Every structure is written in structure tokens, then in C-alpha cells.
Hints:
By secondary structure, the chain is of the alpha/beta class. The chain folds into 3 domains: 3-190 and 237-267, Spore Coat Polysaccharide Biosynthesis Protein SpsA, Chain A (Alpha-Beta Complex); 319-403, no CATH class; 407-448, no CATH class. 49% of the residues lie in helices and 12% in strands. It has 20 helices and 11 strands. The strands form 2 sheets. The chain has a 9-stranded mixed β-sheet with strand order 1-4-3-2-5-8-7-9-6, with helices on both faces. α8 (206-228) packs across α11, α8 (206-228) runs parallel beside α19 (410-420) and α13 (319-332) packs antiparallel against α14. It is globular.
Amino acid sequence: MERKSLVNTYLKNYSVGEKWQLTANDTDNISQVVVIPAYAEKELLFYTLASIVQNQPSSLEYSFVLCVVNNKDNSPPEAIENNIQTIEHLKALIARKSLKRFSAEQKIYHLLVDIADSKLKLGYINAASKGFELPHNTGAVGMARKIGMDMAVRLLKKSSAFPNLILSLDADTLVRENYLSVIKKSFTPEIKTAIVAYEHQMPETYEAQAAIVCYEIFLRYWILGLRYSKSPWAFHSIGSTIAVSTEAYIGVRGMNRREAGEDFYFLNKLAKTGGIDYIKETCVYPSARLSTRVPFGTGKRIQRFLSGVCKEEYSLYDTRIFTILGDWLKLMNGNFLLDENEILTKAEKIHPLLKAFLNINGFPVIWLKIRHNSKNEKILARQFNDWFDGFKTLKLINYFTKEVYPQINMFEALDRILSMLEMPGLKQNSGTKIPALEDQINILQYLRTMT
């Protein structure tokens, strides 16, 4: 089926429809769209836009930035008012109107001027005003991303340029000045999805710095553990780092509408259709701010750290779990002729609870179906990976953590996993279980070079 037909099918059957309209100044000759959900982000959104306009003018010519200003009808009044003001600012920028009426807003006025003076192609979708709010049951960041990304598909429908890309960003995330050009150059006919390197912004206070350093070490340790296990799901799942071709986007029926974790589930689906590339030549800088908007993620983790349980945050998954995971994946790599009972017997030898986990998650029935529906080992391997995906991997790790191997000291775990990967560790300046913040930052910088 040719591209135009695929796009039309997606827009008809799987997109959010045309309820939410685009307001824009120029959408001609674009080949990539940066989608930014914005919920009460007037104080930060324009810093993000100002960082984008630092990209080369030639990159701005083929890029379009789409802000999805959103809330529910029962959102707090101050959030709704913030969104109304955000839309007024965006409207003025798009219409090239005088910005003098915003001159009293000292924090962002100079940013507005810089944006207006650039060649930025800018637009917004109003998902905040009465009648256009996000629906109660699906009205969250996943839905806001989907509205913007579906609009990006419409905008790129007529583009014949290669590649046609949708870039996912957040309103509180700054970008490097080569962000647009590097991502475009990184895509080939074989590469359809990528994540961009990231580094959280460093807050001003000591406590907040300690919180974000702890959290980012946790994220990067997760990747190291999965790499040791040779898991195909060893990639970061952060919404502001995602870049995807329109072909891959419509191939997985678009973004989901989840309140949180939308990035994890979206990348999980994309990884099943092809590899996830890692772009290291540019970087995005997510905010490290406290937040209670979603049940998990950066903001929630920072809030938990600062609430007085920080010592509990200095713990990571026991490395023995990654050994079990690796042995399980090794068992399933090349033993596709074994029946479910033979596999369970071998799994029990890896660890008795591995057999229990597989039974709890219906593996015997699933494996029977997979073998029955697979014509060859290649198809069988793909179907197994589709079942034992990133979510099932997380379930296994959490199961073993709860049942037999509780989390261990963060820095002990790091030493172990680096040793298992035969990578040099970092010597700490003190013998304490929690090193000084300066040492933790050095450890994080080191981890950033490899994850």
C-alpha cells in the first residue's frame, strides 16, 4: 500500500479526528514537526522555544513547532488561566503582532522577542478552551501528545522530502543548538525510530540537585542492567527524547492516550516493529522540577525524594535479577523447538521462582499458541519477543525484587553491574554508603558517557 493510502487509513481509523484545529503562520516545505504538550507552562514553554530558535536558520526552514495547550474542564482555575495566557502569547507570535503588551513580563518578554525575530515556523492547538478541553477519561499527557502527533501526520502528508519526522518534546525541556539538524541527518531508510541523548537540568538547591542526580543514576543503571541481560528493551523511555518517522508512527497506530508512561508504552510498540537508534550527537535537557501531575516519572520521584525518604531512594535492583533475566533470554535464544514443559523445567534450573513467574503470566498457554502460529524460527522468535516485551521484562524484575531479591545500595549495585559488564568503575572519595553529592555527580557524568 502506498504512503498516501496508509496515511489516509490511519487518519480515518486511528487519529483523534479533526475536533482540535491548528493555528499556524507557515507550514510550507516542512519535513519534521516538533510536538510539545503544554499544561500550565507559560513560565517555561518560551524558554524551550527560545532554545529551539538557536538552531541554524536552515534547520528552522524545514521544521515546524507545534504546541498543544491543554487542560480538562475540571482542571484548577489557575492552570486554565495560565493556558489562556499561553495561547495569547502564541497567538501574538504567530500573527507577528506587537509584543509590547507583554513587556511587563520580565522573565519571558526577551524570549518572546527572540522567538519573534527568528525564522521559527510555529503553531498551536487549543485543547484548553471551553468545548475543546481534553476528555475526562483520556485527558492527559498521552492524549495531548497524540493530538499533536496526529496533526503532525496531517501536516507531513504532502511532503515528499526524506525523512518525514515527528519529534516529541516537553514544554520544560531545552535543546542543543544542533537538535533539529542532527536528528534529521541521523535517520536512514533503515532507522525509523530513535531516542536522543538527555541530561536533566541541574536545579539550584542542594536538595533538588541530590534528588535529580539520584533519579538519573537510577534510569541509567536500568539500561546497564538490561544491556548485561542482552535484553532488546535496553533503551530510555523519556517522552522528550523520542523521534519517529511518520511511517513508523502510523505503523503502530500512533501515540496512546495514557495519563503517564505513554512514552514507555509507545516505544515498546515501536521496538517491536524495528530497532530503536540512539542519537548521541545532540542532547535535550529535561527539567528536574517537583511535580504531582502524574503518578510516576521524574516529578513524582523528585517529590518523593524531597518528602523526607531520600535514603530509601538510594537503592537499585539487585544485580542477580539481571543475571536471571539474561539466563532466561539465553535459554529462549535458539531453543524454540522445546515445548512448554521442557522450557519450564530449564527455567526452574535458572531459578525456581522463574518457573513460578512464567506460570503466573500464562507462559505455557502462550508458548503453545506461539509455536502453533509460527511457520519458522524467525517468526517464532519475533512472536516470543512481542510477548516477553519491555513491560513483561519490568514485571519479571519487580516480581523477583518483591519475592526474593530486594533492592540494594545504589552504589554497591553500580559497582557490581559495571564489573559484570567489564567496565571500569569509579572510586568514591569516602567509605560511606551514600557518597558526597560531588562524587555522585561525577558518577552520573561517567554513566552519561555510556548510556
